[in-house]
């Protein structure tokens, strides 16, 4: 793996050199981890003319949750308490003779940017923009393996919950139990705040669990994911509690499931991002549910739970192979509830079997 990180840094260095910057400063934590193997709190990565260095405000603890640093990197712990690593990195770039330094302006505050200019006035600061994020879109097989394990952990946690008694328990209690089960099965933690939504809350995107208790006849929507070695996946399922589903529940579920399946089948290299969104959105819109749909159908996942690409109506670009994305259509009916179905998949060529489904918990409408 160390060669992988050196290769990633080398590609970024070449890109910066072609744009006229001899050095680059990476400060966004997920990008630091992508290039360095780990990201201790507050650390920044300087790709300089005389080698690469990780500048840290404190001594790295070696906590596995922070990742495992590439041993080829020089690690510098700042001696002054409260010193800003990005300012120190700018000074180091100037002292090494760099005339230009590409920085992640989208991650830096105006105050930090000004402090860097004041500390290193002879260095021309340019914008690295989303160069590292673009590199992160296509995953290598080691990254996909981590995502696959994260998905397995998530499926296990959800499967165990479905075997327990749910009626009478609160959304908040179920969410906490799911997060505990993720860790029990080997996750470093939840990939994001677990959502459990019951009754009139069901199907609502990003619902924060409340003290509402599960009741007979409820729709129950669950959205969760595991963080495994920094890589994050997502799954969402909707069930009916305690009884046979009502006709309106079956009809709504079948519609959302059909839209989700159509979008999953569209996940092939060369397909436009907005086309994947369109095939699902058009089905739901035609059924009369277009007004309340989410602004996007899905998104990339990896070291962050929301990465590029965005599967949205106005998204520009086409899918590549080995890009993991979510497909998560949903319909929420105010006062009644709704349905969300969410999977994490990897884009694959048809010759390789087509889209690889990572989250495999059944999508059958179960009465629990």
TrEMBL record:
Every Peptidase M24 domain range: 146-348
Entry keywords, A to Z: Aminopeptidase, Hydrolase, Protease
Protein name (database record): Aminopeptidase P family protein
Single GO molecular function: aminopeptidase activity
Organism of origin: Streptomyces lichenis
Region described as Disordered: spans on this chain: 193-212
InterPro entries: Creatin/AminoP/Spt16_N, Creatinase/aminopeptidase-like, Creatinase_N, Pept_M24, Peptidase_M24B
This protein's record includes keyword Heme: no
Residue span, Creatinase N-terminal domain: 8-138
KW Protease (keyword) present: yes
């Amino acid at each position: 793996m160390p060669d992988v990180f050196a290769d990633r840094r080398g590609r970024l260095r070449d890109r910066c050199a072609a744009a006229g910057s001899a050095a680059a400063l990476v400060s966004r934590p997920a990008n630091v981890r992508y290039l360095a193997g780990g990201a201790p709190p507050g650390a920044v990565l300087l790709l300089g003319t005389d080698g690469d260095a990780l500048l840290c405000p404190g001594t790295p603890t070696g906590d596995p949750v922070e990742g495992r640093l590439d041993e080829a990197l020089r690690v510098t712990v700042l001696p002054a308490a409260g010193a800003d690593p990005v300012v120190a990195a700018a000074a180091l770039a100037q002292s090494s003779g760099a005339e230009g330094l590409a920085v992640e302006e989208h991650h830096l505050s105006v105050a930090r940017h000004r402090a860097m200019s004041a500390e290193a006035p002879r260095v021309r600061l340019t914008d690295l923009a989303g160069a590292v994020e673009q590199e992160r879109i296509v995953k290598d097989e080691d990254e996909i393996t981590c995502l696959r394990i994260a998905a397995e952990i998530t499926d296990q946690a959800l499967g165990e919950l479905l075997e327990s008694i749910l009626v009478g328990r609160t959304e908040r209690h179920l969410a906490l139990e799911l997060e505990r089960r993720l860790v029990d099965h080997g996750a470093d933690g939840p990939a994001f705040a677990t959502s459990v939504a019951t009754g009139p809350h069901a199907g609502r995107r990003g619902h924060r669990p409340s003290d509402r208790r599960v009741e007979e006849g409820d729709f129950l929507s669950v959205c969760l994911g595991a963080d495994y070695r920094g890589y994050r996946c997502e799954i969402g399922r909707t069930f009916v509690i305690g009884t046979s589903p009502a006709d309106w529940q079956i009809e709504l579920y079948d519609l959302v499931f059909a839209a989700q399946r159509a979008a999953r089948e569209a996940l092939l290299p060369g397909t436009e991002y907005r086309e994947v969104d369109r095939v699902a959105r058009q089905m739901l819109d035609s059924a009369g549910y277009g007004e309340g749909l989410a602004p996007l159908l899905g998104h990339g996942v990896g070291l962050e739970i929301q990465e590029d690409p965005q599967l949205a109506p106005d998204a520009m670009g086409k899918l590549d192979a080995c890009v993991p994305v979510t497909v998560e259509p949903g319909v929420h009916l105010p006062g009644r509830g709704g349905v969300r179905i969410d999977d994490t998949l990897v884009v694959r060529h048809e010759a390789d079997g087509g889209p690889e489904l990572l989250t495999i918990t059944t999508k059958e409408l179960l009465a629990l």
